[in-house]
Amino acid sequence: MLWTAAGAAALGILVAMEIIARRYGQPGPITDQLKELLWAPKPGPVYGGLALMTVVLTWRQRFIAAGAAIAIDAVFVLVRWAVGIRATEGHLFGNGALWVMLGCAVIAVTRRTGAERLLLLKGVGLGLLLVAGRKTGDTWLVITSKARPAVLDPYVATADHALGNPSWLVGRMVRATGPIGTHVLHLVYAQLAVAAVVVALYQLRDVAAERRFPSHHLVRTFLVIGLLGPGIYMLFPMVGPVFAYGPGASGTGGVHWAVANLWPDTPPPVHPPHPMTYDEITPRNCMPSLHTAWATAIFVHSRRAPRFLRYAGTFWLIATLTATLGFGYHYGADLVAGVVFALTIEAALRALDRGWDRPGIQLVAYGTTVFAALLVAYRWLPMEMAGHPWVFGPLLLLAMTSVIYGYVRTTRPWEPAPAPTRRPEPQPELV
After folding, report:
1. pLDDT tens, 201-230?
2. How far apart, in Å, are the Cα atoms of 401 and each of 14, 298, 343, 364, 406?
3. Which residue has the higher pLDDT, 43 or 153?
4. Half-sphere CA count of 160, side-chain side, radius 13 A
């Protein structure tokens, strides 16, 4: 029933997004996905979705699925080359993974029954949700740029004085690292979904043997963050310091749209803020920082993994925070909100999984209250925050730390106790 409800909700969201996108003259996520069955797909976690789907398969079936996907992609590449079609954005592969996932769905309906059919459909749904989530997010970002012409960056830039304008500071530090540091951070920032898939594959490694999914895993948190976060974009539209106070990035924005060309050399002066108009191309995707929220989720879910994944989760969180600030995509206030947002959602999903109790309800209510208070403060108290940084800066960090502490303290008793190690029984001595 839960999986059926989730599937129906996902389908409803996709249809709604398709309708809204077409009202703004843009193709929706369903149209984009259907096009990529034949045309070269845009860069995205298509093979990551296939990898997630294969957790329900045996090793032999996994090799067959991977080989079929690669073979189909090779045929598509050869056909495009033969007819002179150039792949968009330099991306060649992905069609094969989509066709294999759809083929497995057909096999589940026509060749499987009972629990085996349900398990295979869950695997296909998990893989397609990861792919569709990227399409839905891209469509929603376009909608935010069309529906919210005015942005609130001056408010958060003013409030960010309480934290010492970290985007300006880290921006200069990243620039000083030269092309090597910039390239590494760009790679980490762009491949966040790959890191999530790696951790999720570890968590789901026993699905094929146990013939069931664990009750809670990273993909659930990842998808819920991606579902709820963009809604905040519409309530608190922002473009980021490199756009509002700099030349823009990724082919959008420009100095003529900015308040002034200040980032990252000169922190913005403290003036009473007001909404500013920005272009209708740049996404309003700053508040909260979902890259920070997703990296936080990866960090949390990698804590019970082997040492290598724990180190990787820590590195990915630190590098993502550095990239979001150092490239001017976010203010420090966005990151604080992103951490609170991620831990509140993670707590809610875990409480839902184990059954709502008083500590779980209190933690989710507290995290929600702190998150709402942050947004209210950024919007209506920016001048006070900038005027008293030694008061509001520690308060912001204390609020975030209190949610972190509450999460650790509440969820630690929820962790399963390690199985006791059996001591070998003493053997009788041979005389």
Report:
1. 999 999 999 989 998 899 999 989 988 998
2. 36, 18, 11, 15, 8
3. 153
4. 27
